[in-house]
Amino acid sequence: MDEKQLAAIGPEDFVLGFQLAGVEEARETTPASYEEDIQALLDHPDVGIIIARHEDVASLPDNVRSEVTGSVDPVVIQLGGGAGEGLREQIRSAIGIDLMEE
Amino acid sequence: MDPKDVKPTRMKLLELKDRIELSEKGHNLLEMKRDGLIIEFFDLLEEAKDAMTKLEDKHEDATRALAIAQAVEGTIPVRSAALSLENSPRIEIGTKNIMGVVVPEIEGESVHTDVSERGYGTIGTSPRIDTAVDAYEDLVDAIIAAAEAETALRKLLDEIEKTKRRVNALEFKVIPELEEARDFIEFRLEEQEREETFRLKKIKDKKEEEEKAAREEAARRREEAES
After folding, report:
1. Beta bridge partners of B106
2. Does residue B27 lie in a domain region?
3. Cβ separation B160–A21 shorter than 8 A
4. Is the residue at B219 inside a domain?
5. Contact residues, chain B, for A16 at CB < 8 Å
6. Does residue B192 sit within a domain?
7. Which of A88, A7, A50 is nearest to B53 (CA)?
8. Are residues B153 and A99 in contact, defined by beta-carbon separation less than 8 angstroms?
9. Minimum-distance CB partner of B95 among A73, A95, A100
10. CA B173 → CA B19, B138, B167, B178, distances in Å?
11. Whole-prediction pTM value?
12. How many Å apart are CA A91 and CA B156, to the nearest integer?
């Protein structure tokens, strides 16, 4: 097990909250540079969890998105509208039924 | 594979039978793997669901608290509080293997700190900023708790999908095509065998006719010689 830090990536308002919780690696980014910035965080040897907005990850090209969602070290956690919906859809497609129903 | 493209030989038939046997073994193994992965998935599901529900709630609370702090105090005091923080959350991360699927293993201590340990003076900030910091610390705790279960769940689902596709390809494409080619060769070989039997029978009949004609000719010659 390696000791690592958390990182947050997204617009100014999104990362500011995580800076309040002490997250040092907080990258304020724009849609134009998002792909490059998240790639840099994925390659960062000291980052264990990347916190990102679901809508930003969803806007990435397919190959980068699958690298982001499939990454194990660092793990990418998506927040915001639709984050749970993606997993719900994945369960529906793999298992055949909606198991996320309350 | 079009069965008409296959050479109808005994060697090819044996080769096809071996491939069918191997494909059926592979199909059974993959079905067992898929079932095992689904069991592991169900073990994780409740934990992941709880963690994700908490995460969504904490995210909403934190976003609201930050919006209130920014609306009342302005962005600069909030940014200033963020820049003066001293404690940075750290986690221990490794990987583990669930039925060949590499998933993360994450351990982290609570990042929740006391107001006096945060690095900014209590005079310079407001209770609203403290509330926002509290909410975001709770959110980071929830993220650390959910990261392992959610990622493991996603990785297991990916592997279930892949295994399902392989099982279906073997069951509905590879094995039926191999069986069709095997049946075609068996049919052609039986047909060849029937043709061969018929040909031999014809040769035998012809030979018997020739022998009969020869015997009759010999008898006729004997009769002519005697007379």
Report:
1. B93
2. yes
3. no
4. no
5. 66, 75, 78-79, 82
6. no
7. A88
8. no
9. A73
10. 14, 51, 10, 9
11. 0.76
12. 10
pLDDT given for residue B200 in this prediction: 96
Alpha-carbon span A46 to A41, nearest angstrom: 9
Q: How is residue B124 written in tokens?
A: 């310079």
Q: What's the domain count of chain B?
A: 1
What is the residue range of B13's domain? Answer: 9-173
Nearest to B93 by CA among B104, B79, B85: B104
Mean pLDDT rounded to a whole number for chain B: 88
List helix spans (H) across B74-174. Answer: 75-83, 127-169
Q: What fold does the segment set A5-95 form as a domain?
A: Rossmann fold (3.40.50)
- Chain A positions with Cβ closer than 8 Å to B: 1-6, 13, 16-24, 48-49, 51, 69-70, 72-75, 77, 79-80, 83-84, 87, 90-91, 93-95, 99-100
pLDDT at A94: 85
Residue B203 falls inside a structural domain: no
- Cα(B196)–Cα(A54) distance, rounded to whole angstroms? 72
Q: Where are the beta strands (DSSP E) in chain B?
A: 90-98, 101-108
CA A13 to chain centroid: 16
Q: Which of B44, B54, B90, B166 to mutate to test the interface with A (most CBs of A within 10 A)?
A: B90
Q: Show pLDDT as tens, one digit a residue, over chain A (102 residues).
A: 788 999 999 998 899 999 988 888 889 999 999 999 999 999 999 999 999 999 999 899 999 988 888 888 889 999 987 667 777 888 888 888 887 765
Say if residues A9 and A38 touch (Cβ distance below 8 Å). yes
Residue B106: give its domain's CATH number: 1.10.287.3240
